[in-house]
Amino acid sequence: MNNRRHYSLTLRLALIFALLAFALLATLGVALYRELERELIKRDDGALIYRADQLRNLLNDSNTLELIKTKPELFQNMLGNSESVLSIAAPGQKPLLLVNPGNIEIPNVTPVPKDHALGFSDVHHLPGVNGVPFATVAASIDSGDLGSLQVTTGRLMTERTAMLASYRLSVFVLACIASIILALVGYLLVHRGLLPLRRLAKHAQGIGIANLAERLGSHGTPKELLPMIDSFNTMLERLAKGFVQLGQVSTDMAHELRTPINNLLGETQVALQQNRSIENYQQLLASNVEELERLARMLDNMLFLARTDPASALRQRQELSAADEVERMADYFEGLANDVDISILAQGEGVIWAEPMLLRRALANLCANAIKYGAPSSELLIKATPDAEGISLSVSNRGETIPAEHLPRLFERFYRVDESRERSSQSNGLGLSIVATIMQLHGGRYSVTSEAGVTCFELFFPRREA
């Protein structure tokens, strides 16, 4: 028992659609996030550089020390918030001014020389506090009386971090919402798009033995489903044809088996109605043996038609000498032909690409048929004629001309030109049908002509492919 779960194709496609939409939107969001992050960093770095340049210009004044001592709040106001820091100090000495309302640890960074203009590459980015980045820039200035001073300014980027975190969350939420919406829309669209497939499935479910002639319609069906519809209709056509053939074979089998069974039953019932001599019982048993032999041949031929494996026949093909094979047939049927005063002539050359046993059975059936219906004191010709495409094997005999209307049906199962031959113990109506099956297995052709008292059966075997 198969316990595997079968998931809806509509659901699968909707989920795939949602995942692709989420991946696309998330990728777009990440790209925009990176661009926004770069712009914000550039903005913040520019603000730090501008502040450092202001301090440079301001501290170049000769009254710098007095200004630092008397108006430190001026520098505090320049910073603007509690997340900024400012340090003014001589190298290696205690700071002249330290503005650090947030008590942020000021890192030691190398100051930019006096004659060097500040740029974005001079800004240092550090991990900061609790994962919040800290940006700082240091510059050297000449303040006159105080000599060389180092100005260090920096800022904890809490605002930028919060803004980027909010943006990330917004991108994720919007991507999820959009994916859910697109999944629902995709589900509805796929469900509607698969409506023709469900309609076809319902139509196919209604086709059974009683209406095998019915076919799936393609009106209004998407072109992607047309090959499937054509293949399904072709399969239905094959099934219908096979079912008709099976019914015909069953009918023919019942008809063919009824005659020998009725003969056996009738003769045996008559024999049992009264005492008979040993000679009469022996004649009865001999007659019954003929009927049983006919039944055995019929069943053997039917089993051959049912069991012949095309793949096995193709694997066992060989290159056979046409001269040897026709000569073999002539030798095999020489005695039987002599009994009815028929001579056999075998001629030809070339190579036959065939399975040996099937080839010999086909030729044997044709030869037996030709001897059975051949005219006394006539000749039976077995001939092989090679050409560029393969080789033709023909079996010709003289006898009664077969009417043209019967020729196309000679290779059908149980078909006979003369119904009076139905009771013949040597005939079961399957010999030529077996020949047709063998030729179909080899991908060859078979045909028959009958004119002016000469009947010729011809088999064509294709040459071996390179």
Tell me what you see in this structure.
Pfam families: HAMP, HATPase_c, HisKA. Keywords: ATP-binding, Cell inner membrane, Cell membrane, Kinase, Membrane, Nucleotide-binding, Phosphoprotein, Transferase, Transmembrane, Transmembrane helix, Two-component regulatory system. It is an enzyme of class 2 (transferase). This protein is an alpha+beta fold and 466 residues long. It folds into 3 domains: 9-164, Beta-Lactamase, CATH 3.30.450; 213-307, no CATH class; 316-462, Heat Shock Protein 90. It has 12 helices and 12 strands. It has helices spanning 9-59, 64-70, 72-79, 158-193, 195-205, 226-272, 278-307, 310-315, 322-332, 334-339, 356-373, 431-441; strands at residues 84-89, 97-99, 124-129, 132-142, 148-156, 318-321, 342-348, 351-354, 378-386, 390-398, 445-451, 454-462. The strands form 3 sheets. A 5-stranded antiparallel β-sheet has the order 2-1-5-4-3, covered by helices on one side. A 5-stranded mixed β-sheet has the order 7-9-10-12-11. Strand 11 (445-451) and strand 12 form a beta hairpin. The longest helix has 51 residues, at 9-59.
